[in-house]
């Protein structure tokens, strides 16, 4: 059902019919597109005149049926969507013979248009104010047949057909005008529009007197605009059409703005005299969109917290002026690559926890929060600075990672509250890293199995590296769902009680989660990533990016 019907309890056609039949004088205003239709409604009008002149003008064509009737009908659809008012279409001559009118009526009803006005001229018509007297009128019988065909076609009894008499415009007599109006009334017209191009209303008033309320009368006082409205009321006119005043008021406003900006080469002079961009948004119904989005577009946006506070001690000189994450790899800072990789997977809410040389982090997009004690604290302290950045679904990641796209995609598709990525190709270490122990080591049969973390051991090159690990944790943790988030908060709060909290890293958080009985799912990968810990890592990062790019180029 048309929502606008619900709002008023009456169809648009019934409302237009009621306006025509009511004892008081009613007014409808021209509109020519969606936004003007909304403006007319907001001003308080009860109906809209979809003017042929104004609609053709807004298309930039002449009022000579240069716009096709389907282009007109398409525009009407925007107008009914933008406004709840009944619309009376200026249907010119009906765009052809009786058969064209039948199809028009059918299409208008389908699109919620309340009625159509047709004029007794020949197709293609010319605006009545251009060479009016030279315009040929339709044959009375033929035009009456057209009205009848329209009335027989309409499915809703309230749909209105107004017959417009052009005899006075075309220089014919008053009796010819009355004869035609009577024939059209008999053919079934719901109202007569009597048109005049004189500057005084005399012939309209004479017609109204002679007509004597045989059916509702409609007028278009464009030329006799100085007539007091009271005169129309006393003459028992039913409906006044203000036929072209929205397009005519818009034109000088646009001309003045265009001229001024062209001459001044700046917007400064017009900004305060034109509608704000917010006003345009309002007229477009942007608020409703935001509300609907909350209702229907509930897919939580994944967040990411990027831990990027450290300098990268093993990189000495190159990190003198910037933190490790801002080192260029293949011409772009590492962090920029990370942010792009997350965005590509729809992770758009990014927060970077910075510390060392935080002010040099200028990658567009992510929010930056600073761990002021970065020099004396570890990753968990940095994470604690970003607790507000957690969403329903959050990935906590080191900032110095490069990885193939599928790793993040698969992590985002995991269905556990906590998931980490473990590289089973590195079961021992040559430099620093975090080895992961699990309840099921990776072999080919493991694919698709649910593997859980049992412990993470960090090691940094002193003595023998730990043995028996299932792989190396790559530095990515996903925390998914409100339950997981509150578990994480609880465990983090406990760790904060510890005297050595400042030294703790994310592996300590993972171990605490496991000890608290929380299952931490392991997603195995086999290579396809690296981190940048030293010069060699930086070098390998360049190769990694180059290999990815040349692969992309080969595919292109
Ligand atoms: C229109 O608005 O297109 C009309 C009314 O037909 S008039 O221009 O006055 O003929
Ligand atoms: Mg017209």
Low-confidence stretches: 552-556
Measured distance between first and last alpha carbons: 49 Å
Proportion in helices: 25-40%
CATH H-level homologous superfamily name of the largest domain: Spore Coat Polysaccharide Biosynthesis Protein SpsA, Chain A
Beta-strand fraction estimate? 15-25%
Tell me the domain tally.
Answer: 2
Backbone CA Rg? 37 Å
**What does the average pLDDT come to?**
93
Look up the CATH topology of the largest domain. Answer: Spore Coat Polysaccharide Biosynthesis Protein SpsA, Chain A
Q: What is the overall number of helices? A: 19
What's the architecture of the largest domain, going by CATH? Alpha-Beta Complex
Shape: elongated
> CATH class of the largest domain, anyone?
Alpha Beta
- How many runs of DSSP E, i.e. beta strands? 21
Class by helix and strand content? alpha/beta
What binds here, in terms of ligands, is: sulfopyruvate, magnesium ion
Q: Major sheet, described briefly?
A: 9 strands, mixed
Architecture overview:
This protein is an alpha/beta fold and 556 residues long. It is elongated, with a radius of gyration of 37 Å. The two termini are 49 Å apart. The C terminus is likely disordered. Bound molecules: sulfopyruvate and magnesium ion (MG). Sulfopyruvate binds next to helix 4.
């Amino acid at each position: 059902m048309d929502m606008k019907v619900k709002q008023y309890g009456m169809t648009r056609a019934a409302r237009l019919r009621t306006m025509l039949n009511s004892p008081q004088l009613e007014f409808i205003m021209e509109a020519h597109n969606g936004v003007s239709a909304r403006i007319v409604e907001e001003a308080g009008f009860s109906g809209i005149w979809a003017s042929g002149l104004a609609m053709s003008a807004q298309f930039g064509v002449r009022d000579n049926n240069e716009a096709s009737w389907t282009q007109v009908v398409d525009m009407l659809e925007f107008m009914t969507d933008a406004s709840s008012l009944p619309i009376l279409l200026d249907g010119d001559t009906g765009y052809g013979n009786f058969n064209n009118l039948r199809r028009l009526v059918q299409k208008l009803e389908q699109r919620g248009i309340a009625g159509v006005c047709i004029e007794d001229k020949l197709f293609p018509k010319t605006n009545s104010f251009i060479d009016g007297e030279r315009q040929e009128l339709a044959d009375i019988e033929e035009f009456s047949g057209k009205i009848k065909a329209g009335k027989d076609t309409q499915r809703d009894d309230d749909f209105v057909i107004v017959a417009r008499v052009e005899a006075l415009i075309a220089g014919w007599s008053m009796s010819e005008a009355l004869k035609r109006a009577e024939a059209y009334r008999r053919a079934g017209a719901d109202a007569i529009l009597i048109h005049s191009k004189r500057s005084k209303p005399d012939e309209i008033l004479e017609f109204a007197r002679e007509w004597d309320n045989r059916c509702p009368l409609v007028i278009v006082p464009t030329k006799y605009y100085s007539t007091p409205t009271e005169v129309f009321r006393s003459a028992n006119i039913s409906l006044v059409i203000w036929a072209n005043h929205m397009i005519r008021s818009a034109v000088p406003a646009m001309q003045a703005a265009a001229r001024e900006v062209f001459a001044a080469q700046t917007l400064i002079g017009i900004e305060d005299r034109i509608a704000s961009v917010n006003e345009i948004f309002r007229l477009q119904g942007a608020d409703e969109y935001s509300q609907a989005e909350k209702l229907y577009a509930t897919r939580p946006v994944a967040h990411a917290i990027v831990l990027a506070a450290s300098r990268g001690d093993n990189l000495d000189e190159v990190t003198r002026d910037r933190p490790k994450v801002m080192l260029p790899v293949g011409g772009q800072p590492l962090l920029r690559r990370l942010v792009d990789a997350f965005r590509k997977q729809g992770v758009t809410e990014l927060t970077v926890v910075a510390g060392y040389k935080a002010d040099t982090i200028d990658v567009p997009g992510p929010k930056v929060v600073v761990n002021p004690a970065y020099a004396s604290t570890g990753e968990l302290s940095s994470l604690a600075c970003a607790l507000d950045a957690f969403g329903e679904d959050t990935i906590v990641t080191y900032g110095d990672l490069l990885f193939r796209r599928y790793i993040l995609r698969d992590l985002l598709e995991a269905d556990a509250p906590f998931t980490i990525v473990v590289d089973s190709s590195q079961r021992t270490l040559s430099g620093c890293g975090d080895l992961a122990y699990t309840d099921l080591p990776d072999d080919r049969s493991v694919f698709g199995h649910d593997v859980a973390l049992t412990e993470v051991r960090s090691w940094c090159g002193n003595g023998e590296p730990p043995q028996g690990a299932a792989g190396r944790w790559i530095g990515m943790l996903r925390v998914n769902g409100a339950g997981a988030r509150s578990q994480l908060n609880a465990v983090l709060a406990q760790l904060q009680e510890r005297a050595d909290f400042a030294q703790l890293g994310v592996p300590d958080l993972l171990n605490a989660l496991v000890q608290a009985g929380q299952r931490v799912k392991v997603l195995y990968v086999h290579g396809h990533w690296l981190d940048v810990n030293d010069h060699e890592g930086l070098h390998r990062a360049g190769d990694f990016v180059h290999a990815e790019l040349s692969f992309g180029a080969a595919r292109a």
